Amino acid sequence: MIDHLDKAELSLRVRELAQARNAIVLAHNYQIGEVQDVADFVGDSLELSRKAAAVSQDVIVFCGVHFMAETASILAPGKIVLLPDEHAGCPMADMITAPDLEAWKARYPGRPVVCYVNTSAAVKAGCDVCCTSSNAVRVVESLPDREVLFAPDRNLADFVARRTTKTIIPWDGHCYVHNNIHVRDVREKKALHPEAEVWAHPECRPEVADLADKVLSTGQMVQEAPRTAAREIILVTEPGIIHRLKKDNPGKEFYPAHDGIYCVNMKKITLRKVYHALDQMAPRVEVPPDIAERARGTIEKMVKL
Ligand code: 13P
Ligand code: SF4
User: Fold this and answer.
1) Domain-wise residue ranges, the chain
2) How much is the pLDDT for 93?
3) Torsion over CA: 224, 225, 229, 232 (sign)
4) Fold type of domain 93-174+293-304
5) Collapsed DSSP state (helix, strand, coil) of residue 9
6) Atom nearest to 266 CA in ligand 1
7) Rounded Cα gap, residues 239 and 243, in angstroms
């Protein structure tokens, strides 16, 4: 029974159990603080994919959302991948299905499809190359074609389109977290903290990205925080990242652009669920071998770049 344990005791129990199971705990930058703190490694989507591909442990406990656990499972065949809450999905990833993708490709024959890592394995399997928010421009630029289909995030597609001479044909998906932060929210925060720099994630609306001093993936925010001369930063992204930024940069202040917006699915993972996942060795995320093989090609092309 773990119900009586406080956070510190529960974290210790998670670490003990992880060791007993020969498991590594990976957490996305948007996870709640105590889950980030118990993890072996915290990172953005690209860093977590790279880490998963290289793990030596038998078990990966993936503290993030479903498509990320699928990606880990694809890149680490033979490993057991646990997602502590099986209902932690990504609504943006669900905005395009494999049949949607096939119908879309049929309308634009001959064009390559770049899929954001925020897609299901079945969708990745039907695409040419994958990307994350930190390498999307580089991935698109690496293609010889002049026209490129890009799914599912229309805001990330717009971000890429502004930085390439290629024609980007976007799918009309979005992240409700980033898309719900508006220009007025950023302006209001800036009025409260006039000295602060504004950093936006590429999933933000274009008009919000235009207001930002820097547009960065979560991993790039982590790298930039100790480098910047700014002592105050307004973050136009999911506020879970503030835990890590404050821990790494105690002399700086970080403010969310909106006080009430967060990713409900990222917050579904709790310390207790991490413990139960390790204890029960469930819920597991498994990708059918034929889909995994095709999706692996799409992801590996990106990882090589
Ligand atoms: P990163 O690739 O920056 O980690 O973002 C993932 C994500 O889900 C953003 O909403
Ligand atoms: Fe999906 Fe947005 Fe949550 Fe990221 S923040 S997992 S894109 S819903």
Assistant:
1) 7-89+266-286, 93-174+293-304, 181-256
2) 98
3) positive
4) Rossmann fold (3.40.50)
5) helix
6) 8
7) 8
End-to-end CA distance of the chain: 47
pTM, entire model: 0.95
pLDDT at 49: 85
- Ligand 2 atom nearest the C-alpha of 64 is 6
Six-digit token pair at 228? 């910047």
User: C-alpha distances in angstroms, 148 versus 44, 86, 95, 109, 266?
Assistant: 25, 33, 19, 11, 30
Report CA(116)–ligand 1 centroid distance (Å). 10
- Class of 7-89+266-286 per CATH? alpha beta
The residues of the chain scoring below 70 in pLDDT are none
Strand-pair partners of 114? 129, 150
- Positions of E strands within 237-297: 253-256
Query: Which pLDDT score is estimated for 167?
Result: 98
Superfamily assignment of 181-256 in CATH?
A: NadA-like (3.40.50.10800)
Residue 132 CB–ligand 1 contact under 6 Å: yes
203 lines ligand 1 (CB under 6 A): yes
* Residue to probe by mutation, ligand 1, list 30, 131, 159, most atoms within 8 Å of CB: 30
Question: What pLDDT is stored for residue 59 in this prediction?
Answer: 98
Per-residue pLDDT of 96-117, as tens digits, reads 999 999 999 999 999 999 999 9
Those residues whose C-beta lies under 8 Å from the C-beta of residue 33, and which sit 6 or more positions away, are 240, 243
Ligand nearest to the CA of 89: 2
pLDDT for the residue 119 = 98
CA-nearest residue for atom 6, ligand 2, is 90
Distance 179 CA to ligand 1 centre (A): 13
